[in-house]
Specification:
The structure is a single chain. The chain contains 13 helices and 8 strands. Strands 1-2-3-4-5-6-7-8 form an 8-stranded parallel beta barrel, surrounded by 7 helices. Helix 9 runs parallel beside helix 10.
């Protein structure tokens, strides 16, 4: 039951100041967020891709309040793409984007976010890679899916994320599976009301399997976003049953979590992509990682006690 409490704290300015100021915080945050600048994460990208892994890069910082901040977010991604081009890593690294960071929640935000994200998607396509639109809380999803659909007219490889704990997601999966799009399935990491989302882990896990079966049997490219050993095993079985080859789906896990499993799956011939976030506005991302899994919170508290 700690998850909802942590998610509430992720929106608290008071908690943000308290945790950010704690001297033990940064060493722990570094486990999940390996840098604040492109220069700091380039060695991480090289290391991961050198081990046969792929990456999806996320510049953290969705809580913006002005159009100027949305332009800065766009430019940060364009800078990242420029560096990936220089390194020749376009085919090994894609981008994950939260549209809130591109201005979605501001006045006229749908149009602003679309205008900001389009040049990023275009630049990504020019170096042989793609962009995936991350799912956020349920109130933003209709806008996200509309932008996804619009972008795919010119850039059909543009992906999106769906969340198993939302009641609507099975219908979304059926629509997307028929369209041939790239779809990342995650459990969900936002505090959602009981009217729209499952509240119990067991229900979410069952929904995850139902939705993944839809994706595996469809025409799209499923991306399995989970660290759960049981769900990973089920995903492999569903892929075999659907007759999918190893390059017709992929696993995705977070940087800093179950790194040995990343390497094991890659060694077995699976496509394994590591979700790697960087940037200065790390607080919200970090708190959601703690909320997703009790082991992450235990790790953080133990580190605070040890380092304190």
């Amino acid at each position: 039951m700690l998850g909802p409490v942590i998610l509430a704290a992720s929106r608290s300015d008071k908690m943000r100041r308290l945790i950010s100021a704690a001297p033990v915080t940064k060493p722990v945050v570094d486990r999940f967020i390996p840098g604040e600048t492109v220069d700091q994460v380039v060695p991480i990208i090289k290391d991961l891709t050198g081990k046969g892994l792929e990456v999806t890069m996320d510049v953290v910082g969705e809580d913006i309040t002005t159009p100027e901040q949305s332009y800065a977010a766009r430019d940060a991604y364009l800078e990242l793409i420029g560096r990936l081009k220089e390194l020749g890593l376009g085919t090994k690294a894609e981008m994950s984007i939260k549209l809130s960071m591109f201005g979605q929640a501001l006045e006229g935000g749908h149009e602003l976010a679309l205008a900001n994200v389009r040049p990023v998607v275009e630049a990504a396509a020019a170096i042989g890679t793609t962009v995936t639109l991350d799912a956020e809380d349920h109130t933003t999803l209709d806008s996200m899916f509309a932008i996804h659909e619009e972008l795919r007219k010119d850039f059909p490889g543009t992906g999106c994320v769906i969340q198993a704990y939302l009641f609507r997601t099975e219908a979304d999966a059926r629509r997307l599976a028929e369209s041939g799009s790239r779809v990342r399935l995650v459990k969900g990491a936002y505090k959602e009301p009981a009217e729209v989302a499952y509240q119990q882990k067991a229900e979410t896990d069952k929904a995850y399997v139902r939705i993944l079966k839809i994706l595996m049997e469809g025409e799209g490219y499923p991306m399995i976003g989970s660290h759960d050993p049981r769900l990973i095993s089920i995903a492999q079985e569903l892929a075999r049953t659907a007759g999918r080859k190893l390059d017709e789906y992929e696993f995705q896990m977070l940087y800093g979590i179950r790194s040995d499993e990343h390497l094991r799956l890659a060694a077995e011939g699976h496509r394994m992509r590591v979700y790697t976030a960087y940037g200065t506005d790390w607080y919200g991302y970090f708190m959601r990682r703690l909320a997703e899994k009790p082991a992450n919170l235990v790790f953080f508290l133990r580190s605070m006690i040890t380092r304190g």
